[in-house]
Amino acid sequence: MAAKYHFRLITREGVKYDGQVVYARLHAPDGYFGVMADHAPLIAALSPGEMVITEREGGAPLYYAAASGVVEIRDNEVVALVESAERADEINVLRASEAAARARERLAAREGAIDHDRALAALQRALARLQVAGHRAGQGSAPR
């Protein structure tokens, strides 16, 4: 049986998840990384992307589309502070698709007036939402 640790996912709106888990996969600027019990202490930036939380070995994972933020890992406690996080069942696929299209148009225009970094971040958030929405059927346990 895999060892568990305490994981909290916190957004501006409040706590999105708070419980014992066996595994979490988070998205950093350099790519995804996994966290299991007894992970080395770490403070890292998080990038927009899919966040996966597994509560028990062999259990269905919970999927979140998370925005940028920061994570602190120490003493079998993980706290992820992100701007926003949405479960698969909370995502409006049409709205996310439209947001991705708008962001792509802004990036393709390459006009001096657009904020490239802001458009790129909007595209990353929209793509994360679409990726996570694809997991609706396998959304694991009840929302927290």
What is the string of helix and strand elements?
EEEEEEEEEEHH
| Strand tally | 10
Low-confidence stretches: 138-144
Number of structural units classed as domains: 1
Q: What percentage of residues falls in helices of 4 or more residues?
A: 10-25%
The number of helices is 2
CATH class: Mainly Beta
In whole angstroms, the N-to-C terminal distance is 24 Å
Q: How large is the radius of gyration? A: 16 Å
CATH superfamily annotation: F0F1 ATP synthase delta/epsilon subunit, N-terminal
CATH fold-level topology = ATP Synthase, domain 1
Largest sheet: 5 strands, mixed
The CATH architecture is Sandwich
Average pLDDT, all residues: 89
- Can you tell me the overall shape? elongated
In terms of DSSP E residues, the strand content is 35-45%
Instruction: Provide the structure class.
Output: alpha+beta
Strand order in the largest sheet: 2-1-9-8-5
